[in-house]
Design a protein that fits this description.
about 220 residues, alpha+beta, about 35% helix, globular
Length: about 220
C-alpha cells in the first residue's frame, strides 16, 4: 500500500513539469509565429491597432483526407485589458481550436492561424468560452494591402489570417469552435481562471514564459485606436 502511494505521488509530481513544458512550448511557438508575421507586415498595423484581442494558433494540422479533412490546434489568446478593453495587452489565456471541412485550405502541411478579434461583442463571446464561429460570432478572411485601409465592417467580429509554407493570406475558418484550455490555464496560473474577469481586471501578472509574446504585441501596437 505504501509503495503504491509513493508511486502515485511520484507520477503527480512528474506531471506538473510536463504540463508546464507544454505551456512554455505553446507560448514560444505562438511568439515565433506572431513575430515573423508582424515583421513582414502581413497583418496591417491599422487593423492590429483596432483589435480587441489577438489569437495565435501555431501549426494547426489537418486530420483526415480529402475535402472533409478537419484541423485541431492549441493556441493563445491575448486581449487588451480594462472594462472597455482599451488598456495594455494583458496576460495570455490558452485556447483550443477545432475546425471542420477545411479541405485544401490546410493541404498536407501544418498551418499557422492569427485571428484578430475586432469587436467587444466578439471578444465577449470568445471569452465566454465554447464559441462556434458563425453561430456565436461572425468571422471572415482578413483583408490585406489596399483593402485593409478602408475596412470598417461593424458586423464582422473576427478577421482570420493563415500562413502555410511561407505563404500568408486571409483565410476562412468556417464553423470552427474555440474554447479555453482549462487544464493548461490552471497549471499556468496555479488555479482555475475566469477569462473575462481576468481581462476586465488586468491585474494578472504575465507569466515568465509569456513575456516575449506580450512584448511583441506591446511593441507592434502600444495603443488601441
Amino acid at each position: 500500500m505504501k509503495n503504491n502511494l509513493i508511486a502515485v505521488l511520484l507520477c503527480l509530481a512528474a506531471a506538473v513539469p510536463v504540463v508546464a513544458q507544454k505551456a512554455d512550448k505553446r507560448l514560444a511557438e505562438s511568439t515565433a509565429v506572431l513575430k515573423t508575421i508582424l515583421a513582414k507586415n502581413d497583418i496591417p498595423k491599422a487593423l492590429l491597432n483596432k483589435a480587441e484581442c489577438v489569437m495565435v494558433y501555431p501549426s494547426v494540422k489537418k486530420v483526415g483526407l480529402g475535402i472533409s479533412g478537419m484541423g485541431y490546434g492549441r493556441g493563445v489568446l491575448v486581449c487588451r485589458t480594462g472594462p472597455n478593453m482599451d488598456g495594455k495587452w494583458g496576460a495570455p489565456i490558452m485556447y483550443t481550436l477545432d475546425t471542420h471541412s477545411l479541405g485544401a485550405q490546410l493541404g498536407s502541411s501544418s498551418t499557422d492561424y492569427v485571428l484578430l478579434v475586432m469587436s467587444q461583442r466578439g471578444a465577449a463571446k470568445v471569452l465566454s468560452g465554447a464559441l462556434k464561429l458563425g453561430a456565436g460570432a461572425s468571422a471572415v478572411a482578413g483583408p490585406s494591402g489596399a483593402n485593409a485601409s478602408g475596412f470598417n465592417d461593424p458586423n464582422v467580429d473576427i478577421l482570420s489570417y493563415s500562413q502555410s509554407k511561407g505563404m500568408f493570406a486571409g483565410a476562412s475558418l468556417g464553423t470552427a469552435s474555440m474554447d479555453a484550455d482549462d487544464d493548461i490555464n490552471k497549471e499556468l496560473y496555479g488555479k482555475a481562471i475566469d477569462a473575462a474577469q481576468m481581462v476586465r481586471d488586468g491585474k494578472t501578472p504575465v507569466p515568465p514564459a509569456a513575456q516575449a509574446l506580450i512584448a511583441v504585441l506591446r511593441k507592434a501596437s502600444p495603443k488601441h485606436m
